[in-house]
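Could you please review the protein record set out just below?
***
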Amino acid sequence: MMKSSREEVLSITKTLVRQESIVNTDGEKLLAQKLHTMIAGFSYFRHHPDQLVLARTTDDERERHNVMAFVKGTKGKSKRTVLLMGHLDTVGTDDFVHLQEDACHPDRLMEKLQEEALPDTVKEQLDSGDWLFGRGVLDMKSGLASNTYLLKYYSEHPEKLDGNLVYLAECDEEDSSHGILSALNILSQWKEEHSFRYVGAINADFVSPRHTEDRNRYVYKGTVGKLLPSFFIAGAESHVGSCFEGLDPNLIAAELTRQISYNPELCDEADGEVTVPPVSLKQTDLKPGYTVQTALSAFAYYNFFVHSWSPKDVLEKLKGQALAAFENALSIYDERYHQYCKTAGEPVRRIPWPPRVFTFEEMETLLIKEHGKSFTDHMDRFKENLLEDTSLDVRMFSVKVVEEVWKWMADRSPAIVLFYSSLYSPRIRITGETPEEAALNRALDRAIEEVQPMYPHPIKARNFFPHISDMSFVAISDDEEGIEAVRDNNPAWGTKHFVDYGAVRELQIPVINIGPYGMDAHSKLERAEMTYSFEVVPTLTRRVIERLIGTEEEDARIGAPETESGFR
């Protein structure tokens, strides 16, 4: 057991936290520079400066950097390589309100929190001396600090490794993953130049209780995937004084949200674990301002987690849900129209609109067949011009493209168009079917078995990390058909948005998560338990590393009982 880890990981954590690094601000760049300077001061990197880089992200509107390094083991000639990864950016601090100036100063913040009215459990933790509070403490600077500690340890003891250790501190995890996506090039370059054979990746993102009575500390094999299915809804406009002459797209959008949000039918179960259902993240009409005309169109998108379903599977399922929502909306419309006509004494006419649902790919294919090059050339020019509006995020860019494509439809009667409007974070399912996955699973299971007697709370392994993370971009479980569904149904693909999933597939590093334990990430009471985060996490991680790229002698040594535990 690394008895000294607690104080050193605590010290590194506080150093990282004190440099505010809110995503999409200059703080990201400043922290990367500070971290690079810190690591450059390690003796190993003073002698091997070419093994440490401050790498600027690519295809990024902001200037920001990843910090990347590697240590070559000297105990043998193996090319086996383990990747340690973690992000250096955080969410904002506005939620701290009057404590915002103290958000990134844990000691000051905890002193101020003593004067606040806190829930009993939080007050007990604050008073215990074993919990650290502050923005980024949990998500995930204590995890990054553990990785930095281990990098320093192995840089001082390369003789303990029969293989190589790669370190990655990436930016922009909290938004668009520019950091990890840019790092793929260097990871591939190092693989080629140094013959690295990546046998496993260990992420250090935070873990939390699954419910209020949950006392487990979780490690994860693989990760959930995340999609952003989006819907353009075309209605039939009318004056509000003659509302039944048209079809309000907001009615369809409302039924769509009722059909999709919190729907357990859309939970993806795999390996005994179930995703949370999708939920609405945006629902709006597309009128630019007030008029007494009903909206021409509406827009909605939903968070969607997956364990085993591919992006193609999700499109098929949601196309059915959208059709049901459309039918429900027309049924409500028809019922209310009949009631109105009866009350007003007016004749009833037949509803002229059938329910129609297209995927973006289906609509685009139809229009290419009908219009050919005139359509594709127009859309290419439109998207290039649209890129000049830097106020548009990828989601609004995408819906504007769909609006423009819709104008080319010969039949523009009410319809729903289903598409993807943001980054797909691929699911990773560690089945143990490959030698690398099997070895990583064994190493993690053995590490838990060895460490558990020295820690009072259960340490449990689960199959899917439940939050969006950069783990999704070091391996991929989807086949090419699944990825094609993302590409062909994202209107921004190749202009506002592009991901080289081929580069991810080429690396294909099985990945686990061993991260700090705490509560209330992304809130002003964000906090981490220090015993687990600063002692257990680096110890578990070290044991996995040494089982993957240690020697048989080292495996035997780390399997021996410990007597000098620093755990409480």
Q: What stands out?
A: Residues 264 and 277 are 6 Å apart (CA to CA). The two ends are 13 Å apart (CA to CA). Confidence is low (pLDDT under 50) at residues 552-565. DSSP finds 17 helices and 19 strands in the chain.
